[in-house]
Amino acid sequence: MIETKNIVKKFAAHLALNEVSISVRKGSVFGLLGPNGAGKTTLIRIINRISAPDSGEVFFEGKPLQASDVYRIGYLPEERGLYKKMKVGEQALYLARLKGLSRRDAMNRLKIWFEKFEIAGWWNKKVEELSKGMAQKVQFIVTVIHEPELLIFDEPFSGFDPVNTLLLKNEILSLRDKGSTVIFSTHNMASVEELCDDIVLIDKAQCMLAGKVNEIRRSYSRNLYEIKYRGDTNAILKTLESNGYEVNVGETTFGVSNIRVKASGEHDNNRLLSLAMPVVEITGFTEVMPTMNDIFISVIQSN
To answer: What is the per-residue pLDDT across 150-188, written as a single tens digit (0 to 9) for each?
Structure first.
């Protein structure tokens, strides 16, 4: 859907992007990750043609990005901005018309979205009367109102409480399921695991890590397992440690205990379970996969 090739961008003596290439699959949710100042917003602005790269190219559906392509993009910037003295409905209608919708289509779509987001009663209120979260709902609506093929959200969950964050996540997934491609920049690694199909991690102006979320997590796996059981903790501890496993004992809740077991080198799950089963009653066994937050910190600290 969207592809950048070897994007370079400098601001005076500061190198913001250095040969950055990304590829976003059509119909996917793509996470753009990185610490503050890494170059994420600069890349987003280049994709939106707000600024131009010093070198490199951007392709939209296989063709060089054109000025007219921005009408096929919906962009919610991190720096939110609504005209505070305008009425909510008046402003939403104005922005929807700028996206190319007729007044009738804009009104019909806005009515549906305002009811869905439970802000219909604020249509005739001034923007300055809205809470931060409600204002962000309005901005989300005007970002998606023209049903663009590509949606770009920069820190979309900032300022939202857990209930409204869930609402927004569900809407993003619904838009993807209806055919939109989504790019979003975030520091919320839990959201990355919930929403993203693919990610790229940018640090110090360069791509440090890219790929499918599940494959990246698998590549960083540490042969760490959690066993839940009923029985003698000392017995399972002695058995596993004597066979070369590192074991950390967890808590016991309602008679069920848990331990985390670290295997080294080549490992066979069946062997681990065959050692544990004669001494305790196994109630659960899972591999403990590294979180995206763990991976994010590991990559940034090693760079």
So the answer is: 999 988 887 778 888 888 889 889 989 988 999 988 877
- CA 132/CA 82 separation, integer angstroms: 11
**Phi and psi based region of residue 186 (left: phi greater than 0; alpha: psi -120 to 50; beta: remaining):** beta
CA pair distance 89, 232, nearest whole angstrom: 65
The answer to whether residues 194 and 228 belong to one domain is: no
Q: Which residues, 6+ apart, have CB-to-CB distance to 71 below 8 Å?
A: 99, 100, 146, 148
Do 81 and 91 meet the contact criterion of CB atoms below 8 Å apart?
Answer: no
Structurally, the chain folds into a number of domains equal to 2
277, 162: one domain: no
- 106 neighbors 93 (Cβ within 8 angstroms): yes
Whether the Cβ atoms of residue 195 and residue 185 lie closer than 8 Å to each other: no
pTM of the model: 0.80
CATH of the domain at 258: 3.30.70.1150
What are the strands, taking DSSP E only, across the chain?
2-11, 14-24, 29-33, 55-60, 63-64, 73-76, 150-154, 181-185, 198-203, 206-212, 224-231, 246-253, 256-262, 280-287
Domain that holds residue 227: 223-287
How many CB atoms within 10 Å of residue 93?
19
Q: Determine, yes or no, domain membership for 110.
A: no
Q: Is 258 contained in some domain?
A: yes
